[in-house]
Design brief:
With 318 residues, the protein is of the alpha/beta class. It is built from eleven helices and twelve strands. Helix 1 crosses helix 2 and helix 1 packs parallel to helix 10.
Length: 318
């Protein structure tokens, strides 16, 4: 495993962060609790020391799975946890933004219980709440930080203007954007955030799984499935363009002793100087180890340049 300093937080984090969205059991493949817990154990064994979750991942189910597993392992002190506030999973289907001071505090307290811990390493505002002034949200996060309940504050899915405004009331130390070979729309913003000293943790680092090469034909996912609802590249016309990119990645795989395509995609992302760590969701021990193996080797600058050229050719940005 490779490690980087996570911006001005000073935390030394693994370049792979285990994502737990799917472990909530909604929007992704549903797996037994013991399988999810074993994936978390595998991540610890592989040297992953950063794990990302959120109360919105099925009403705290993912947090509870993570908290119980780390407690059973006695590993909480060795793992940095990122969780979120400002986004509430209401009824098993819909999400509601809530950046109010009372909502932020309630969500923090709930997360502490779910995670079986007395502090959260990084608290992110999941999505901006247009109904609540940033002053209210960020001031409350500052209070929670002063109380020692959270150690660092960050945001996810914010624009530059929103970060600049929110940062007036509490220092923003981390940024979590969607970023991968198939989603580079916010690259300039990510670079800006890194220049400000924020740690950058990318989500959707494998494009919801499309960059693994598993999906070579259009697949009909359920309406509630995140690959259908959230990731546009599982639909035409982008899907066919991604398939052309996969052909280029296939060639790189052959040149590297047939490594899984996921390892190419993760190295492409993690080797960007403005990326601190890549969030990777995996619910099976085998997949966790397979993904973690990406950080045992690196792409050359020439290979990254070739991949960038292919990406620009096939995957236009908005």
């Amino acid at each position: 495993m490779r490690y980087k300093v996570f911006g001005k937080t000073g935390m030394r984090v693994s370049e792979m962060t285990l994502g737990t969205w799917g472990m909530g059991g909604v929007g992704w493949d549903d797996n037994p609790e013991e399988v999810r817990q074993d994936a978390i154990r595998a991540a610890v064994e592989a040297g992953v020391n950063f794990m990302d979750t959120a109360p919105a991942y099925n009403g705290g189910a993912a947090e509870r799975c993570l908290g119980k597993t780390l407690e059973d392992m006695g590993a909480r002190k060795d793992i940095m946890i990122s969780t979120k506030c400002g986004n509430v999973f209401v009824d098993g289907v819909t999400y509601r933004r809530d950046g109010s001071a009372s909502g932020v505090r309630r969500q923090c307290e709930d997360s502490l219980r779910n995670l079986r811990t007395d502090y959260i390493d990084l608290m992110l505002v999941h999505w901006p709440d247009p109904a609540t002034p940033f002053e209210e949200t960020m001031t409350e996060l500052g209070k929670l930080k002063q109380e020692g309940k959270i150690l660092h504050v960050g945001v996810s899915n914010f624009s530059q203007a929103q970060m600049e405004e929110a940062g007036r009331f509490c220092e923003i130390e981390a940024y979590q954007p969607q970023y991968s070979m198939v989603h580079r729309d916010d690259e300039a913003l990510i670079k800006w955030a890194a220049e400000q000293g924020m740690g950058v943790m990318t989500y959707g680092s494998l494009g919801g799984g499309i960059l693994t090469g598993v999906f070579r034909e259009l697949t009909a996912f359920a309406a509630s499935d995140s690959r259908n609802r959230f990731y546009k590249h599982f639909h035409e016309p982008v899907f066919s363009r991604v398939m052309e990119l996969l052909k280029v990645m296939d060639r790189f795989s052959e040149e590297h002793d047939n490594v899984p395509l996921a390892q190419i995609a993760l190295n492409w992302c993690a080797q960007k100087e403005f990326v601190s760590t890549c969030i990777v969701g995996a619910q099976h021990r085998r997949k966790v180890f397979q993904n973690a193996a990406a950080f045992e080797w690196s792409l050359t600058p020439e290979e990254i340049a070739d991949l960038d050229k292919a990406i620009s050719t096939y995957i236009p940005t908005n």
